[in-house]
Design brief:
Elements (H helix, E strand, L loop, with lengths): L3 H13 L2 H8 L3 H15 L4 E2 L6 E2 L1 H28 L5 E6 L1 H4 L2 H12 L4 E6 L2 H9 L5 E4 L8 E16 L19 E5 L4 H13 L5 E5 L2 H9 L4 E5 H4 L7 E5 L5 E9 L3
Helix pairs in contact: 1-2, 1-3, 1-4, 2-3
Length: 275
């Protein structure tokens, strides 16, 4: 097993291209770097450098090992920065995250109101993917995150704080744009935006389409509701999504209509336990 010091020295040599450059970067003597490299080669049982001709040329094995170690080393440095950030929190900074669906209209509006009420506060606002949400709250010193799903983690407390109806963003050129309200059956034979089946929006849209009783003419898949709105604005399809996401729609190119369905989206505030 290589030590962190050995990994640091090896990566420094690979990046600098010489022992002299690595020693300067690490602030240690050149003979020390040479001894560390020799020890690494002895432990691994392979030659990492060709020293003929007075130079230092990495072997194929060295490049292969360096790629793996650099990725691990960079992740370790990033984790160290995050860990230090949790104990050296910048005073007066409120760090809030949001999923894309509520990060475009809902959360910015609330943060603007907060900034007016608390003139001394500075904001750090991050729009995050599902995979980024838990690390943001448990590792990156986030103060909270607003989502359309509860973050399930023992170090996170999720509280439902509101809800939004499912609505349809309809292109202006569609005959349905003249309606005041849509029924699921109105979607039969229409082009409709769908999402990944496991997502909050995917489950809701699939449920409404099942209520329609007949398949749409075409389905266009996206990951985020913002993309669904963009397709509706461009006239490509009808987007089914939460009322907050629909707030960003350009009303000159699309209309937002209520849908006769019981489907709703819950809004969750997720906070680290004890903060």
């Amino acid at each position: 097993m290589l030590t962190l010091r050995q990994i640091e020295a090896f990566i420094a040599v690979m990046r600098a291209g010489s022992i002299t450059g690595a020693a300067r970067e690490l602030g240690i003597a050149q003979p020390t770097v040479s001894r560390i490299l020799g020890r690494i080669e002895d432990q691994l049982g392979v030659a990492l450098f060709d020293r003929s001709g007075g130079g230092l040329t990495p072997t194929t094995d060295a490049w292969r090992i360096a790629g793996e170690l650099e990725r691990a080393y960079d992740r370790l440095q990033a984790a160290t920065v995050r860990a230090v950030g949790t104990v050296r929190r910048q005073p007066g900074v409120f760090r809030i995250g949001a999923s894309p669906s509520v990060g475009r209209v809902l959360v910015p509006g609330v943060l603007a109101a907060l900034a007016r009420e608390e003139p001394g506060i500075s904001l750090r606002f991050d729009v995050l993917s599902v995979a980024q949400m838990t690390p943001f709250l448990t590792e990156a010193a986030g103060d909270g995150a607003v989502t359309l799903f509860p973050v399930r983690h023992r170090a996170v407390r999720a509280v439902a704080v509101g809800s939004a109806p499912l609505v349809a963003v309809v292109p202006r050129g569609s005959p349905l744009a003249r309606r005041e309200r849509l029924a699921p059956a109105d979607l039969s034979g229409q082009p409709v935006v769908v999402y990944e089946a496991w997502s909050v929006h995917g489950k809701a849209a699939d449920s409404v389409l099942a209520e329609a009783g007949a398949p749409p003419a075409r389905t266009h898949q996206v990951r985020f509701p913002e993309s669904a709105v963009a397709l509706a604005e461009a006239g490509a399809a009808i987007a089914l999504l939460d009322g907050f996401s629909a707030g960003s729609a350009d009303r000159e190119r699309a209309v937002v209509l209520p849908v006769a369905t019981a489907q709703r989206f819950e809004v969750w505030l997720n906070r680290p336990v004890g903060r």
